[in-house]
Specification:
Elements (H helix, E strand, L loop, with lengths): L15 H15 L11 H8 L3 H13 L3 E4 L3 E4 L4 H25 L4 H14 L1
Antiparallel strand pairs: 1-2
Helix pairs in contact: 1-3, 2-3
């Protein structure tokens, strides 16, 4: 089991379960959590993060509903990163959400689409 570097913030506007869920999902999408990898038990994870057991249960429940993990009674919760269509579609959705923010901001600031394309090309090459 790889160690999860989950950081929760009590000052964030996002609920704790959402912060944790997003970080686990992100680790799966980046390949930091591999298919079949065992996640920490709910009790150990909640103790490590100093959050309620119910918070971690909600995280695991939602990740299971979304198809990113699978729970096996008596064995634990395992990463399901083998569904390449789900992984690729989720990546595209995340990028599209960021692009919508970027385009919305660009339109409110009066940036033309060609300038936006040029900026994206430069940033893409430099990052």
């Amino acid at each position: 089991m790889s160690s999860l570097n989950i950081v929760v913030s009590n000052t964030s506007e996002k609920p704790l379960y959402e912060q944790i869920k997003e970080q686990i999902k992100s680790a799966i999408l980046r390949g930091n959590l591999k298919n079949g990898e065992l996640l920490p038990s709910i009790r150990n994870f909640s103790t490590d993060l100093k959050v309620s057991i119910l918070t971690i249960r909600r995280v695991y429940d939602e990740l299971e509903q979304e198809g990113f993990v699978s729970r096996q009674a008596g064995k634990g919760t395992f990463v399901l990163a083998g569904n390449k269509d789900l992984i690729e579609d989720t990546k595209r959705v995340l990028i599209e959400e960021k692009m919508i923010e970027m385009v919305t901001l660009s339109k409110t600031m009066g940036v033309k689409i060609q300038d936006l394309h040029d900026m994206l090309d430069i940033v893409y090459e430099e990052v």
